Amino acid sequence: MKSGAMLPEKTLRLLKDLGLTEYETRTYTALVSGGPSTAGDLGETANVPYSRIYDILSRLERRGWVEVQSGRPARYKAKPPAEVIRLLRIEQEQRLKETGEEIVKELEPLYEQKAEARRPDIWVIRGDRNLGGKVGEMLARARVEVLVSLPVLPREFLEPSAISPLLAAKNLTLRVITSEKGKHINELKAIPNLEVRFRKPLFGGGVIVDGNEVLLLLASAGEKLGVWSDEVGLAKYANEYFEYLWRDSKVRS
After folding, report:
1. Nearest-5° angle of CA 26, CA 27, CA 33?
2. Residue 182: predicted pLDDT
3. Domain residues of the chain, as ranges?
4. 122-247: CATH topology
5. What secondary structure letter does DSSP report for 204?
6. Are 227 and 123 in contact (CB under 8 A)?
7. How many CB atoms lie within 10 A of CB 116?
8. How large is the average pLDDT for residues 76-93?
9. Rounded to two decimals, what is the model's pTM?
10. What end-to-end distance do the CA atoms of the chain give, in Å?
11. Which CATH class is domain 9-79?
């Protein structure tokens, strides 16, 4: 019986995807299905030319797919597929680690130079709908902490039913400073990982995400207006000012 005759084509293709040649695939599968064999018998079973079989077996042995049983003549045995895959995984992980470290070493300095030279974005945003959408984008990008300081908290920004699962799913911390009281605030205060403090007076405010992007909320002739930026200095200043207000704000039950 020729090698691979009883094996699905998909299995043979997957072995080739792992780096085996056509002859190597035939040889290994012949050993798996037929058991230990001499090189001469294996060449016939696997339909591999006798002039090539020793070279094929030598390569498979070096790669850890087969092992040699001493004797005259020597017999070859397939290593268990599970063991072969385990060794391949270790080999690939090590290769990826070494390659990745070399790539980072060479390219990261170039990336950092470009990042330092990058001009920060600054956007002016008008209207409740656009501002609400921007806050939603910021919350989606948040990874650690969100800071909010506003005299009145618009529900389109901080709807309890939407904020609660977001904080839980991403394990975020949300701190809020406001002058507002009432049912909406009590609902927010009941959410885990969300802390509310009160301060009067509180003029203007904004939203800060992870200390690296900020949305400053202003008012212009009755229209709500926001300025968003990822400028490092501005985000840092806004973060420090929030911390100053936070320390000076009150906690109420």
Report:
1. 85
2. 83
3. 9-79, 122-247
4. Endonuclease; Chain A (3.30.870)
5. -
6. yes
7. 8
8. 89
9. 0.52
10. 82
11. mainly alpha
